[in-house]
Amino acid sequence: MTDISGFDAGPLPELRQLLKKWIFVNNEYVRRWDGHDAPWWYIERASVSTVAAAAWLAKGIALEEYTTSKTRNIKRARSVGQGRCDLFVSVRDRHRRDRDLIVEAKICWPSLTSGAFRKRIEEGLAVACKDVRRTHRDDGARRAGLLVVSPTIAKSQNERLEELIQEFVDFIRRQSRESHCAVAWTFPSAARKLSDKRQRHYPGTAILLRPLRRKL
To answer: What is the pTM of this model?
Structure first.
């Protein structure tokens, strides 16, 4: 077994270094715990922290769970006062210009043997984008929905593990083109043994970042 990882910055080319560092952060965490623990095993906040860490390693900045204004009605832009935003990141593009991104995140744990796993990912990404539309946008910043995907597979399907991972990676790659997303994925070989009491494996993770259209 070998590590399976990669990324496609797609509509957010300024995130190339961040996505690369995100793979490193997750793999390093798994390595430190010898494959017995991983960030994607927990709630969304744990995985958002890996994106923030990647931003700093990419020589950008990041801030999690900060206070900002939200709106109740997107069409009317009616304010409801203060709320929290999951993540702010700022990185520099190849021209050394600052690129700011405001992010709202969701997480899902789809079964790779379920025919509905693709639908769950598409729906989760749509919900994240809906949330970020309610979040205040500072001048010059873009907004994006972030979906963390932690796919699972029953131990009874061990013989298909590599095949199912590859099918998932192929799907994530297509999402970059078809759903206008920046994507990254990592399946460290050490994490193949990561499982819970329900006899399910959690072999890796992926993130999808879909920026809102600038007119929104």
So the answer is: 0.92
